Amino acid sequence: MSIVQDRPLNVRRAPLPLFGKVFTDSWRGLLGWGAGLAAAAFLYLPLYPSMSGASGMQALIDQLPPELVKTLNYDQIGTGAGYTQATLFGLIGFLLLSIAATSWGAGALGGDEESGRLELTLAHGVTRVRVAVARFCAIAVKILALSALLFLVVLLLNDSSKLQIEVGNLLGMCLLFGGVNLLTASAALLGGALTGRRIGGIAAGAAVAVLGYVFNALGSQSASLEWLHNLSPYYWAFGTSPLSTGASVTTIVVFYAISLVLAASAALALRQRDIGV
After folding, report:
1. How far apart are the first and last CA of the chain?
2. How far apart are CA 181 and CA 205, in angstroms?
């Protein structure tokens, strides 16, 4: 006769399965975004040696309105660091990763609730806060991984493209690049948690990315509008030309601190809401 010993069922589950599932569901997309960022770097940066000495290019830039040149960060395009920041980090790279960050943040909670998958996840005995934390951590890892990829690609092209970028400045730039996009993703996460809809997250993430870019552009138009720079995460990240002069540690910390606050707010918002309503 065998004796079966009852064991308590209230065993705490680690959040790792929730964290890992994000990658098993989206690793192809992550590779695609990584390939897009790398392709942009390989497309733009090798052109710098032929453009840096082109008097025609500088003449064209000199004909543009000074406000537009400043908005596009073309005022330092004659240097390798200025060219890389203007074309890669501040333009095509920012656009690509902002779209990815907004999509990931909006879909993590709002999109899952809208499709009914969030209710299924919560039915497995995990708390709402744990789900929100796991989703945020997964998004943060993806954004930092893509920022690290961009660091490696630019470092690889640094000598051959004659960019002459200091490694420390490049590291700081990539941390800022990851920070501003994590802020976008966190806003999208909070928007989705508050509304329970993907569109709510997209609106919040797009507000951070698009309005940040618009406020930076408007603030560069005249001295009377420079105060708009204070409202622009884009300007916080790129306004002081960190790839040329070095990134501010304080600014880097501020980006990640605000992102954590927004993520915590998303967890609390999800905890208080009636899922599916």
Report:
1. 52
2. 9
Answer whether 266's CB lies under 8 Å from 136's CB: yes
- Tokens encoding 67: 């406000």
Tokens of 8: 């308590």
Q: What amino acid is encoded at 150 in this protein?
A: L
State which H helix or E strand residue 159 sits in.
none
Is 142:103 a contact under the CB 8 Å cutoff?
A: no
Query: To 10 degrees, the CA torsion angle through 132, 137, 142, 147?
Result: 130
How far apart (Å, rounded) are the C-alpha atoms in residues 175 and 40? 19
d(CA 156, CA 206): 32
> CB of 108 within 8 A of CB of 189?
yes
Torsion, Cα of 233, 234, 235, 236 (10° steps): 40
d(C-alpha 106, C-alpha 204), whole Å: 8
pTM score of the predicted model: 0.88
- Under a CB-based contact definition with an 8 Å cutoff, are residues 215 and 228 in contact? yes
Instruction: Report pLDDT digits (tens) over 184-234.
Output: 999 999 999 999 999 999 999 999 999 999 999 899 888 899 999 999 999
Q: Which two tokens stand for residue 114?
A: 């809208």
The answer to whether the CB of 262 falls within 8 A of the CB of 187 is yes
